[in-house]
Amino acid sequence: MYAWRVLHRVVTGVNPAKHGICLNTVFDPLEKERRAYRSNAQDIRVPTVYQLARKQGLKTSLARWPVSVGAEADWLFPEMWRRRWLACPDSQ
Predict the structure, then answer these.
(1) Which is nearest to 25 in space by CA: 47, 46, 9, 4?
(2) Which of 22, 28, 30, 29 is nearest to 1 (CA)?
(3) Which among 8, 9, 15 has a CA at the least distance from the CA of 68?
C-alpha cells in the first residue's frame, strides 16, 4: 500500500509530504472508484529525475512506472491499475 511513496522518493529526492504520493490509491471516501490506484503524473508535486534529465536534452523512457500517465518522457509506457481490472470474471 505504501510502496509508491518510496519509489517516488527515489525519483524526486524528497519525502512524501513534498512529492505528494502518500498512498498507492487515490483518496476516495465514497468509494466511487473502488480503490483506484494513482496513475496521473500530475499528482507528483515536484520535478522528477526523468523530467530534469529531459530538460537537459537526455532521452528518457518510463516503462510501467507508477504514477506515470502523462509523464514527460520520450518513450512512455505508463502503468495503470483499477481494481475492477484486477477482478476475475465470474465463472459459469
Answers:
(1) 4
(2) 22
(3) 8
Residue 60 identity: T
pTM assigned to the model: 0.72
Grid cell at residue 64: 510501467
| pLDDT, one tens digit for every residue, the chain (92 residues) | 568 788 888 889 999 899 888 887 777 778 776 667 777 888 889 999 999 999 999 999 998 888 888 898 999 988 776 555 444 444 44
Cell of 30: 465514497
What span, in angstroms and rounded, lies between the C-alpha atoms of 26 and 38? 6
Report the chain's C-alpha Rg in angstroms: 15
Note whether 50 and 73 are within 8 A (CB). Answer: yes
User: How far, in Å, CA of 51 to CA of 65, rounded?
Assistant: 14
Domain range summary for the chain, segments of one domain joined by +: 3-85
